[in-house]
Every structure is written in structure tokens, then in C-alpha cells.
Known about the structure:
This protein is mainly alpha-helical and about 200 residues long.
Amino acid sequence: MVHIQPKTFDHLHGFDGLSERCMREHIKLYNGYVAKYNELMNKLRGARNGGRIHAAADTESLKVDITFALAAIKNHELFFDILGADGDEPAGPLADALNKSFNSIPQYLMDLKQAALVGRGWAWTAYDLDYGHLFNYEGGATAGIPVWNSVPIVAIDLAGHAYFYDFGSGKVAYVETVMKAISWTRVAARFTAAQQMSPHRM
């Protein structure tokens, strides 16, 4: 069983896309998910080592909570990692893939914004390893996934805690701000890594 160490996201120091308070509180929430995951995994390990697991019901609650905590960790790590734009735009193979999948980069950005605005939990851009294309997915729950055998390369947190401090109930302004703050260089690196796993490279 893996013990997770929280990441620090040093590249966000001085980040002006969202306020310092908003980012500080959001990262604090992420650290809480990491602590909760490690706590739950220790409980599961202790139950197994003590021979106290005799039926699926014994682990049902732990597995539900572990799944949620781990999904929250991974989603937040992706979200924080891709923030920090320096005025860059999609370029190279990433731009080619976006044009192929969405007909144009403006259409991709519009589609991502629409997915984020209707989403209740998360919005993702993911690369489908089976079919070799990019698609925007909406997820109503933290533990949801875009679709089986796909690799998210963009994640936008749509929960109220992500924007309340800066925007109140202004979700539209938040989504627009986040999209302007995406580092496409970081997204491109994730796309390249995802492509290496697919037999259907674009």
C-alpha cells in the first residue's frame, strides 16, 4: 500500500490567476485529502494484518472513502499542476491534436468552457488511449472518471470551494479566469506522455 506525500506546487508561488487566499485554502483542502487517504489506508492495512476482514461488508465503507480521497488527490494535483500560464498557447503536437479532435483550437476552448459551466464537480480534457483522440468530459462527482482507458491532461475544479473566496457565486468568471491561467506547456507535456501509452498516436 502506497503512502502519499503531498506535493508543494512551487510553480504557483506568486501566481496571480487566483488570489493567494483562494489558492492557500484550496491547497490546504488538498493536503487534507492526502492525510485522510493515508489514514484510511492505515486502517485498511491494520484490519488486514489483524485478520479482521471476513466479508466484503467489512471493507465497504473504507473502500468508498479511499476511492473518494484518492480521486480528490489526483484531480487536484492535475488541476494545480496545469495552472501558471505565461501567455502561452497550445502549440506543436498538442495543437495538431486539438485541431484534429475539435476542428480548431477556438472550438476546443469553447467546448471545454461549456463542459465546465454545466459540470457540478470537475471538467476534464482527456486523451483516449483506444481511439487516439481528445475529448472534453464533465464529471458530477470527484470519484468519477472521464471514461475508461483515457488519460486526463486538463482538469478544472468546479466545486464551490475552488472559487468562493474570489468570485462568490460567479462560476462563469471563475471558469474564464482558470482557462486563461492554464499553462499549455504543462498540458503539452502531459499530452506527450499520454500519447506514448497509446497504440493510436495522433
